[in-house]
Amino acid sequence: MILPAWAFWVAIVLMFVGLLGVLLPAIPGTGFIWIVVLIYAIAERFATIDVFSFIALTILGLGGATADIWMSQLGAKVGGASIWSTLASLVGALLGGLIGLLFAGIGAVPGMLIGAVGGVLLNEYRERRTWKTAWRATLGLIIGFTLSTLVQLVIGIAMLAIFAWQVRRG
Questions:
Q1: 8 Å CB contact between 159 and 64
Q2: How many Cα neighbours within 13 Å face the side chain of 162?
Q3: CA distance 149 to 29
């Protein structure tokens, strides 16, 4: 069942909200775009979004939704962080997110960033006993996290384009 044109335009507007979410951490990003695709595909019984396109959009959505994690970890590794420091950044991000959400009033996302940075910085200093090396690894984490925003934006635009192409071609 093909949905009316207004449903397509509502989905496109919602996907643009998802693109904003890539830049503004308070709004969901590529995961939100994927949910819009899922709802649209189910509502139209996969008439225009075929299974192969949906699988491709799901893979893109997973890549975008997890880009903050794997890009920041990759950046930390390139910056010289040990495996233990990258694990410390993950633990720091989890703890920082919980503390930021529950106690500090700063929110989960800033808390996660502070926790991840603190985890790498403190563990690298503990292991190597030099602040220069610790800061280099931390800078790699920050650069990786920053580049993840670009990756998410490209993935989000690709998801929107694939969705629009599939629906418009009928």
A1: yes
A2: 24
A3: 10
As a whole number of angstroms, the distance between CA 44 and CA 33 comes to 17
Three-state SS for 77-107 is: HHCCCCHHHHHHHHHHHHHHHHHHHHHHCCC
The residue assigned the tokens 């207004």 is 6
Q: Where are the domains of the chain?
A: 5-65+152-169, 67-149
Task: Give per-residue pLDDT as tens, 126-153.
Answer: 998 999 999 999 999 889 888 989 999 9
* Tokens encoding 118: 């603190």
Q: How many CA atoms lie within 13 A of 167 on its CB side?
A: 24
Distance, in Å, from the CA atom of 118 to the CA atom of 157, rounded to the nearest integer, reads 32
DSSP string, 18-29: HHHHHHSTTS--
